[in-house]
Automatic annotation (TrEMBL):
Every UDP-3-O-[3-hydroxymyristoyl] glucosamine N-acyltransferase non-repeat region domain range: 22-88
One GO MF term: UDP-3-O-[(3R)-3-hydroxyacyl]-glucosamine N-acyltransferase activity
Pathway annotation from the record: Bacterial outer membrane biogenesis; LPS lipid A biosynthesis
Enzyme class, broadest EC rank: transferase
Cellular component aspect of the GO annotation: membrane
Catalyzed reactions: a UDP-3-O-[(3R)-3-hydroxyacyl]-alpha-D-glucosamine + a (3R)-hydroxyacyl-[ACP] = a UDP-2-N,3-O-bis[(3R)-3-hydroxyacyl]-alpha-D-glucosamine + holo-[ACP] + H(+)
Gene Ontology BP, a term: lipid A biosynthetic process
Record's protein name: UDP-3-O-acylglucosamine N-acyltransferase
Length: 348
């Protein structure tokens, strides 16, 4: 629960209205109640303001709040981003309400934790685990021996952290995610069989990392698989052993990053993308959905297709591809004309 004035201060905005009004939640612009705050970032939703009962509305600084004297506003640089910040704040506040140990649970030897830690029912913590302040371990989560979890991080139900995993502060590991599982390493034998290669490393997550539901991140063969600060990984993503993903990269669902690939800073990877191993995806690269990256990329490239190529070349190639039926018809017509001409010459 916050007042509009407190929210404006949190968002570095300005309250145009009753700064003492209390807000208890957030809502959609078409349905927000008198106790909820909403936002307006797209002009097509302007129509909802006329009959809005929202307790407050986030708008851009150039919005004419005086046109709606019956509503209370907070003006900010970017309403969408501000609303996102507020969602995170309210979510954290709700999550922090939980603390203490539910039963049954299992906690190993030499476990250390900070203030206001929550351990849900059926959760397992191995030996020598270290938890920071306000860490939340939800029911049926598994935290292996020697794991370290930073302040304010949340491990959601059923997530698994293999031994030695390091998680930074303000991270979210969603339900069913598996961090630190065995990397896909097998040595081929002369008889065609495969010998298992022990995977002795770990996984290290930076701060403010989000890992989606049922995503898997394999431990390194030796050393660490590293996910840097601010990385956001969607559901059902596979990150193989010894991969490194640099700061503030985003990866959409059903993508697979093969072993020892290096993904740079601020990279955007669409859904169902695949990469080969041992390549480097340079900083600020964008990879379109369902593309296959087979070689190193250059900074600021936009790639599409299988194999992934530069966007401009892809669009030119696709323009030709769309014309293939017409071109085939013309080729067949020309072949028939040539056949007729050839037949005519032969008959003479």
């Amino acid at each position: 629960m916050m007042t509009l004035g407190q929210i404006a201060q949190l968002l570095d905005g300005h309250c145009a209205g009753n700064a003492k009004k209390t807000i208890t939640g957030l809502g959609k612009i078409e349905a927000a109640t008198k106790d909820e705050l909403t936002f307006l970032a797209n002009p097509k939703y302007l129509k909802f303001l006329e009959h809005s009962t929202a307790g407050g509305i986030l708008v851009a600084k150039d919005f004419h709040t005086a046109d709606y004297p019956n509503l209370d506003f907070i003006t900010v640089d970017d309403p969408y981003l501000a609303f996102s910040t507020l969602l995170a704040h309210f979510q954290r506040a709700a999550g922090q309400a939980k603390s203490g140990l539910e039963t049954p649970h299992s906690v190993g030897k030499n476990v250390k934790w900070g203030a206001e830690v929550y351990i849900g029912a059926m959760a397992y913590l191995g030996d020598d685990v270290a938890l920071g302040n306000h860490v939340k371990i939800h029911p049926q989560a598994y935290i292996g021996d020697g794991c370290v979890i930073g302040d304010h991080s949340i491990i959601y139900p059923g997530a698994k952290l293999y031994p030695g995993t390091h998680v930074g502060s303000y991270c979210n590991i969603h339900a069913g995610a598996v961090i630190g599982s065995h990397g896909f390493g097998f040595a081929p034998q002369p008889d065609g069989s495969y010998q298992n290669i022990p995977q002795t490393g770990n996984v290290v997550l930076g701060n403010h990392v989000d890992i989606g539901a049922n995503t898997t991140i394999d431990c390194a063969t030796v050393g660490s698989t590293v996910i840097a600060d601010g990385v956001k990984i969607d559901n059902l993503v596979q990150v193989a052993h010894n991969v490194s993903i640099d700061m503030h990269t985003v990866i959409a669902a059903q993508t697979g990053i093969s072993g020892s690939a290096k993904v740079g800073k601020y990279v955007k990877i669409g859904g169902q993308v695949g990469t080969v191993g041992h390549i480097t995806i340079a900083d600020h690269t964008t990879v379109g959905a369902r593309s296959g990256v087979t070689k190193n990329t250059k900074s600021d490239q936009i790639l599409f297709g299988v194999p992934a190529i530069d966007r401009h070349n892809y669009l030119k190639s696709y323009a030709v591809y769309k014309k293939l039926p017409e071109l085939m018809s013309r080729i067949e017509h020309l072949e028939q004309k040539l056949l007729n001409l050839t037949s005519g010459k032969t008959s003479k």
